[in-house]
Task: inverse folding
Protein backbone atom coordinates (compact mmCIF):
# COMPACT_ATOMS: atom_id res chain seq x y z
CA UNK A 1 0.00 0.00 0.00
CA UNK A 2 2.70 2.36 0.96
CA UNK A 3 4.65 1.57 -2.16
CA UNK A 4 1.56 2.28 -4.24
CA UNK A 5 1.09 5.47 -2.30
CA UNK A 6 4.68 6.44 -2.96
CA UNK A 7 4.29 5.67 -6.63
CA UNK A 8 1.13 7.68 -6.73
CA UNK A 9 2.90 10.54 -4.93
CA UNK A 10 5.77 10.29 -7.33
CA UNK A 11 3.36 10.30 -10.27
CA UNK A 12 1.51 13.15 -8.67
CA UNK A 13 4.78 15.08 -8.34
CA UNK A 14 5.69 14.20 -11.89
CA UNK A 15 2.26 15.33 -13.03
CA UNK A 16 2.61 18.37 -10.83
CA UNK A 17 5.95 19.23 -12.43
CA UNK A 18 4.47 18.56 -15.88
CA UNK A 19 1.56 20.81 -14.98
CA UNK A 20 3.98 23.47 -13.87
CA UNK A 21 5.89 23.00 -17.13
CA UNK A 22 2.69 23.12 -19.15
CA UNK A 23 1.57 26.19 -17.23
CA UNK A 24 4.95 27.79 -17.83
CA UNK A 25 4.71 26.87 -21.50
CA UNK A 26 1.16 28.27 -21.61
CA UNK A 27 2.34 31.45 -19.96
CA UNK A 28 5.28 31.72 -22.31
CA UNK A 29 2.93 31.12 -25.24
CA UNK A 30 0.54 33.72 -23.89
CA UNK A 31 3.44 36.20 -23.52
CA UNK A 32 4.59 35.36 -27.04
CA UNK A 33 1.05 35.83 -28.32
CA UNK A 34 0.77 39.11 -26.46
CA UNK A 35 4.13 40.20 -27.89
CA UNK A 36 2.98 39.13 -31.35
CA UNK A 37 -0.24 41.07 -30.97
CA UNK A 38 1.73 44.06 -29.72
CA UNK A 39 4.11 43.75 -32.68
CA UNK A 40 1.15 43.45 -35.02
CA UNK A 41 -0.44 46.53 -33.50
CA UNK A 42 2.87 48.39 -33.75
CA UNK A 43 3.20 47.27 -37.35
CA UNK A 44 -0.33 48.46 -38.11
CA UNK A 45 0.45 51.80 -36.47
CA UNK A 46 3.66 52.10 -38.48
CA UNK A 47 1.79 51.15 -41.65
CA UNK A 48 -0.85 53.77 -40.93
CA UNK A 49 1.82 56.36 -40.22
CA UNK A 50 3.63 55.38 -43.42
CA UNK A 51 0.41 55.72 -45.40
CA UNK A 52 -0.27 59.12 -43.87
CA UNK A 53 3.32 60.19 -44.62
CA UNK A 54 2.99 58.89 -48.16
CA UNK A 55 -0.23 60.83 -48.66
CA UNK A 56 1.40 63.95 -47.23
CA UNK A 57 4.39 63.45 -49.56
CA UNK A 58 2.05 62.94 -52.52
CA UNK A 59 0.14 66.11 -51.65
CA UNK A 60 3.42 68.02 -51.27
CA UNK A 61 4.66 66.67 -54.61
CA UNK A 62 1.38 67.67 -56.24
CA UNK A 63 1.61 71.14 -54.73
CA UNK A 64 5.22 71.47 -55.86
CA UNK A 65 4.29 70.44 -59.38
CA UNK A 66 1.45 72.99 -59.38
CA UNK A 67 3.83 75.68 -58.13
CA UNK A 68 6.35 74.78 -60.83
CA UNK A 69 3.67 74.92 -63.50
CA UNK A 70 2.46 78.30 -62.24
CA UNK A 71 6.03 79.61 -62.18
CA UNK A 72 6.62 78.39 -65.73
CA UNK A 73 3.40 80.05 -66.89
CA UNK A 74 4.34 83.29 -65.14
CA UNK A 75 7.83 83.16 -66.72
CA UNK A 76 6.32 82.58 -70.15
CA UNK A 77 3.94 85.52 -69.67
CA UNK A 78 6.81 87.71 -68.48
CA UNK A 79 8.91 86.76 -71.50
CA UNK A 80 5.96 87.51 -73.78
CA UNK A 81 5.38 90.87 -72.11
CA UNK A 82 9.09 91.73 -72.33
CA UNK A 83 9.18 90.77 -76.00
CA UNK A 84 6.07 92.87 -76.66
CA UNK A 85 7.53 95.84 -74.77
CA UNK A 86 10.83 95.52 -76.65
CA UNK A 87 8.99 95.31 -79.96
CA UNK A 88 6.92 98.38 -79.06
CA UNK A 89 10.01 100.30 -77.98
CA UNK A 90 11.86 99.32 -81.14
CA UNK A 91 8.89 100.35 -83.28
CA UNK A 92 8.74 103.66 -81.41
CA UNK A 93 12.47 104.16 -81.95
CA UNK A 94 12.12 103.36 -85.64
CA UNK A 95 9.23 105.78 -85.86
CA UNK A 96 11.22 108.49 -84.09
CA UNK A 97 14.20 107.84 -86.33
CA UNK A 98 12.01 107.93 -89.42
CA UNK A 99 10.39 111.17 -88.23
CA UNK A 100 13.82 112.68 -87.51
CA UNK A 101 15.19 111.71 -90.92
CA UNK A 102 12.00 113.04 -92.53
CA UNK A 103 12.37 116.32 -90.66
CA UNK A 104 16.05 116.49 -91.66
CA UNK A 105 15.11 115.76 -95.26
CA UNK A 106 12.41 118.42 -95.25
CA UNK A 107 14.69 121.02 -93.70
CA UNK A 108 17.38 120.10 -96.23
CA UNK A 109 14.89 120.54 -99.05
CA UNK A 110 13.81 123.86 -97.57
CA UNK A 111 17.43 124.92 -97.36
CA UNK A 112 17.90 123.91 -100.99
CA UNK A 113 14.96 126.08 -102.00
CA UNK A 114 16.37 129.13 -100.26
CA UNK A 115 18.57 131.40 -102.38
CA UNK A 116 22.23 130.60 -102.00
CA UNK A 117 24.60 133.26 -100.73
CA UNK A 118 27.30 134.13 -103.20
CA UNK A 119 30.12 134.21 -100.67
CA UNK A 120 30.80 131.32 -98.34
CA UNK A 121 29.13 132.49 -95.16
CA UNK A 122 30.90 132.30 -91.87
CA UNK A 123 28.46 131.44 -89.09
CA UNK A 124 29.68 134.07 -86.68
CA UNK A 125 27.41 136.25 -84.63
CA UNK A 126 28.72 139.49 -86.09
CA UNK A 127 27.79 138.70 -89.67
CA UNK A 128 24.39 137.44 -88.54
CA UNK A 129 23.81 140.62 -86.59
CA UNK A 130 24.86 142.78 -89.53
CA UNK A 131 22.59 140.87 -91.88
CA UNK A 132 19.70 141.23 -89.48
CA UNK A 133 20.39 144.96 -89.14
CA UNK A 134 20.46 145.33 -92.91
CA UNK A 135 17.11 143.57 -93.15
CA UNK A 136 15.57 145.74 -90.48
CA UNK A 137 16.88 148.93 -92.11
CA UNK A 138 15.25 147.90 -95.36
CA UNK A 139 12.05 147.01 -93.51
CA UNK A 140 11.77 150.42 -91.84
CA UNK A 141 12.65 152.17 -95.07
CA UNK A 142 9.80 150.36 -96.80
CA UNK A 143 7.42 151.13 -93.95
CA UNK A 144 8.35 154.83 -94.04
CA UNK A 145 7.43 155.17 -97.72
CA UNK A 146 4.59 157.28 -98.88
CA UNK A 147 1.41 155.33 -99.41
CA UNK A 148 0.52 154.77 -103.07
CA UNK A 149 -2.61 156.91 -102.93
CA UNK A 150 -0.68 160.14 -103.47
CA UNK A 151 2.10 160.32 -106.01
CA UNK A 152 4.55 163.19 -106.48
CA UNK A 153 7.39 163.29 -108.88
CA UNK A 154 10.74 162.37 -107.34
CA UNK A 155 12.94 165.31 -106.41
CA UNK A 156 15.69 164.25 -108.80
CA UNK A 157 14.41 163.19 -112.18
CA UNK A 158 15.38 159.68 -113.14
CA UNK A 159 14.64 158.11 -116.49
CA UNK A 160 13.79 159.84 -119.74
CA UNK A 161 14.18 163.59 -120.26
CA UNK A 162 11.34 166.05 -120.46
CA UNK A 163 10.99 166.08 -124.25
CA UNK A 164 10.08 162.37 -124.19
CA UNK A 165 7.41 162.64 -121.52
CA UNK A 166 4.64 162.82 -124.10
CA UNK A 167 5.01 159.31 -125.50
CA UNK A 168 5.75 157.70 -122.16
CA UNK A 169 3.13 155.49 -120.56
CA UNK A 170 1.46 157.03 -117.53
CA UNK A 171 3.15 155.97 -114.30
CA UNK A 172 1.54 153.10 -112.41
CA UNK A 173 1.93 152.55 -108.71
CA UNK A 174 2.45 149.39 -106.79
CA UNK A 175 -0.49 148.51 -104.54
CA UNK A 176 1.62 147.70 -101.49
CA UNK A 177 3.65 150.01 -99.29
CA UNK A 178 6.50 150.93 -101.63
CA UNK A 179 5.02 153.80 -103.65
CA UNK A 180 7.60 153.40 -106.44
CA UNK A 181 6.70 153.63 -110.11
CA UNK A 182 6.15 150.33 -111.88
CA UNK A 183 6.88 151.49 -115.42
CA UNK A 184 10.67 151.70 -115.27
CA UNK A 185 11.17 148.74 -117.57
CA UNK A 186 8.85 150.22 -120.20
CA UNK A 187 10.78 153.49 -120.09
CA UNK A 188 14.07 151.65 -120.45
CA UNK A 189 12.80 149.66 -123.43
CA UNK A 190 11.54 152.80 -125.16
CA UNK A 191 14.81 154.60 -124.52
CA UNK A 192 16.68 151.56 -125.75
CA UNK A 193 14.79 151.60 -129.01
CA UNK A 194 15.75 155.25 -129.53
CA UNK A 195 19.30 154.68 -128.24
CA UNK A 196 19.05 157.87 -126.23
CA UNK A 197 19.44 156.92 -122.63
CA UNK A 198 20.06 153.67 -120.83
CA UNK A 199 19.38 153.52 -117.14
CA UNK A 200 22.00 151.81 -114.97
CA UNK A 201 21.18 149.48 -112.10
CA UNK A 202 22.34 152.12 -109.63
CA UNK A 203 19.83 154.61 -111.04
CA UNK A 204 17.01 152.13 -110.88
CA UNK A 205 17.96 151.20 -107.32
CA UNK A 206 18.06 154.86 -106.31
CA UNK A 207 14.70 155.46 -107.90
CA UNK A 208 13.07 152.62 -106.03
CA UNK A 209 14.57 153.24 -102.63
CA UNK A 210 15.40 156.95 -102.42
CA UNK A 211 13.23 158.41 -105.13
CA UNK A 212 10.81 160.35 -102.92
CA UNK A 213 12.03 162.66 -100.19
CA UNK A 214 8.70 163.36 -98.52
CA UNK A 215 9.02 160.34 -96.26
CA UNK A 216 11.01 161.97 -93.46
CA UNK A 217 14.49 161.20 -94.79
CA UNK A 218 16.81 164.20 -95.00
CA UNK A 219 18.06 165.11 -98.44
CA UNK A 220 21.71 165.03 -97.35
CA UNK A 221 21.26 161.48 -96.03
CA UNK A 222 19.70 160.42 -99.29
CA UNK A 223 22.47 162.02 -101.31
CA UNK A 224 25.12 160.27 -99.23
CA UNK A 225 23.24 156.99 -99.67
CA UNK A 226 23.11 157.52 -103.41
CA UNK A 227 26.84 158.13 -103.67
CA UNK A 228 27.57 155.03 -101.61
CA UNK A 229 25.18 152.93 -103.70
CA UNK A 230 26.69 154.15 -106.96
CA UNK A 231 30.20 153.31 -105.82
CA UNK A 232 29.04 149.94 -104.53
CA UNK A 233 27.14 148.81 -107.59
CA UNK A 234 29.12 150.41 -110.41
CA UNK A 235 32.44 148.95 -109.34
CA UNK A 236 30.88 145.91 -107.72
CA UNK A 237 32.86 142.90 -108.85
CA UNK A 238 36.20 144.66 -109.21
CA UNK A 239 36.18 146.33 -105.83
CA UNK A 240 35.19 143.28 -103.87
CA UNK A 241 37.75 141.14 -105.64
CA UNK A 242 40.50 143.68 -104.99
CA UNK A 243 39.44 144.02 -101.40
CA UNK A 244 39.73 140.25 -100.91
CA UNK A 245 42.89 139.49 -102.83
CA UNK A 246 44.90 142.67 -102.44
CA UNK A 247 46.24 144.54 -105.45
CA UNK A 248 48.69 141.93 -106.78
CA UNK A 249 46.87 138.71 -105.97
CA UNK A 250 46.40 136.66 -102.84
CA UNK A 251 49.95 136.38 -101.49
CA UNK A 252 51.02 139.97 -102.01
CA UNK A 253 49.80 141.59 -98.82
CA UNK A 254 50.92 138.67 -96.68
CA UNK A 255 54.38 138.97 -98.24
CA UNK A 256 54.40 142.69 -97.51
CA UNK A 257 53.46 142.13 -93.89
CA UNK A 258 56.38 139.85 -93.12
CA UNK A 259 55.96 137.40 -90.28
CA UNK A 260 52.89 138.83 -88.52
CA UNK A 261 50.87 135.63 -88.86
CA UNK A 262 48.25 136.34 -86.18
CA UNK A 263 47.62 139.89 -87.32
CA UNK A 264 47.45 138.62 -90.87
CA UNK A 265 44.86 136.01 -89.95
CA UNK A 266 42.76 138.61 -88.14
CA UNK A 267 43.03 140.98 -91.07
CA UNK A 268 42.05 138.23 -93.50
CA UNK A 269 39.01 137.40 -91.41
CA UNK A 270 37.98 141.04 -91.16
CA UNK A 271 38.46 141.50 -94.88
CA UNK A 272 36.40 138.42 -95.68
CA UNK A 273 33.61 139.60 -93.39
CA UNK A 274 33.64 142.98 -95.09
CA UNK A 275 33.60 141.40 -98.53
CA UNK A 276 30.73 139.16 -97.50
CA UNK A 277 28.74 142.12 -96.25
CA UNK A 278 29.39 144.02 -99.47
CA UNK A 279 28.36 141.02 -101.52
CA UNK A 280 25.16 140.76 -99.52
CA UNK A 281 24.50 144.45 -100.15
CA UNK A 282 25.19 144.03 -103.85
CA UNK A 283 22.91 141.02 -104.12
CA UNK A 284 20.11 142.81 -102.30
CA UNK A 285 20.57 145.97 -104.35
CA UNK A 286 20.68 144.14 -107.67
CA UNK A 287 17.66 142.02 -106.86
CA UNK A 288 15.75 145.09 -105.78
CA UNK A 289 16.88 146.89 -108.94
CA UNK A 290 15.73 144.05 -111.18
CA UNK A 291 12.40 143.86 -109.40
CA UNK A 292 13.13 140.40 -108.07
CA UNK A 293 12.01 139.21 -104.70
CA UNK A 294 14.60 138.36 -102.08
CA UNK A 295 13.27 135.50 -100.00
CA UNK A 296 15.09 136.72 -96.93
CA UNK A 297 12.81 139.74 -96.84
CA UNK A 298 9.83 137.46 -96.32
CA UNK A 299 11.16 136.34 -92.98
CA UNK A 300 11.11 139.96 -91.80
CA UNK A 301 7.90 141.39 -93.20
CA UNK A 302 5.00 139.64 -94.89
CA UNK A 303 4.51 141.91 -97.88
CA UNK A 304 6.97 142.04 -100.73
CA UNK A 305 6.10 144.78 -103.17
CA UNK A 306 8.28 143.45 -105.97
CA UNK A 307 6.36 140.20 -105.92
CA UNK A 308 3.07 142.03 -105.78
CA UNK A 309 4.00 143.82 -108.98
CA UNK A 310 5.25 140.61 -110.60
CA UNK A 311 2.11 138.67 -109.78
CA UNK A 312 -0.06 141.26 -111.44
CA UNK A 313 -2.10 142.37 -108.46
CA UNK A 314 -3.94 145.36 -109.98
CA UNK A 315 -1.90 148.55 -110.09
CA UNK A 316 -3.54 151.94 -109.58
CA UNK A 317 -3.25 154.32 -112.50
CA UNK A 318 -2.42 157.94 -111.71
Result:
Amino acid sequence: MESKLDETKAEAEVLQSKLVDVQAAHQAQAVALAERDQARADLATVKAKAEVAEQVAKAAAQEHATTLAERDAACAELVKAQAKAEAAEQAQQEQRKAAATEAHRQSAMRRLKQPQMLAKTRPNWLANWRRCRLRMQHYWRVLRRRRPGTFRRPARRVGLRKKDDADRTSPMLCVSACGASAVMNVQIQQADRRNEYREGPADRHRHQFHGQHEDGVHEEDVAAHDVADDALIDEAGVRVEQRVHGEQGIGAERYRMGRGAVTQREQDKRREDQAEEELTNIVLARQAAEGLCDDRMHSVFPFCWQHRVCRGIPLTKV
Remarks:
- The mean pLDDT is 67.
